[in-house]
């Protein structure tokens, strides 16, 4: 019987904290359960969460979900069937767990669906170290930990990064009487409307950022594109590469994530390369199956161009088929 172990106490924990999805409902629907036709084209986070809830209810998935179960590790059993030992504990348990509180179960097949949007990647600028004498004294936060807009009311915020998260948060918070400055690590906004926003890559050469609202906010001056940061601090000073300087209350890093799988033996997905995960290199076939472990499959490590849900669905369908014929799937090589 399949068992799903999410750490959250309810489904769609990530989407309940998100803003407005940037793909259409038509492109993000699962093939076997369409989003209601009378819903808006671009769904607010409440409706994304509701859609996933409806899907789980329709296919009676909740009876297979053990909410509030945090997986500690997934280990090879090294028996004749190459099974896996999954160790987990209830999230409600105290931080200092006794070994007796950790539960173990053995599975023939494991699907890792944790994705890669959970260990924040930070940029490195002089002045970020809080122990340094000339350190930046404002707030430094990654978009992963963003929760409420009121914290930034009437403040100046420097957003590092121009991906979807950076654009969405800057637009939302600029409506909150905040002044935003974009520090452009890598310019990918399409189309550009400012000299500091011209894309560095050729068309289709990287994952683009597309936003209609950000241009309006730039035209009002509440969002100001800038060069990359040269240094932060001392105090609340931010020095940019073109020599301009501002005083900012917060540096908001929208700089993506590290691919990290701490519950697994790292050699399974790195082939023993020490810096592989730091460089987001995962040793898998089609970003899904470690070559030596056909009964372990990853769902959600791929970066889609467009809506991710249909890709995750196809990965899940492949995994279900592979489950029925473990050992017969042809795996040519890492990412081949």
UniProtKB/TrEMBL annotation:
Name the InterPro entries for this protein. Answer: FAD/NAD-bd_sf, Flavin_mOase, Flavin_mOase-like, FMO-like
Q: Is Cell membrane set as a keyword in this record?
A: no
At the top level, the lineage of the source is: Eukaryota
Q: Tell me if Endoplasmic reticulum is a UniProt keyword of this record.
A: no
GO MF annotations in UniProt: flavin adenine dinucleotide binding; N,N-dimethylaniline monooxygenase activity; NADP binding
Keywords (alphabetical) are:
FAD, Flavoprotein, NADP, Oxidoreductase
SUPFAM superfamilies, per this entry?
FAD/NAD(P)-binding domain
Q: What is this protein called?
A: Flavin-containing monooxygenase
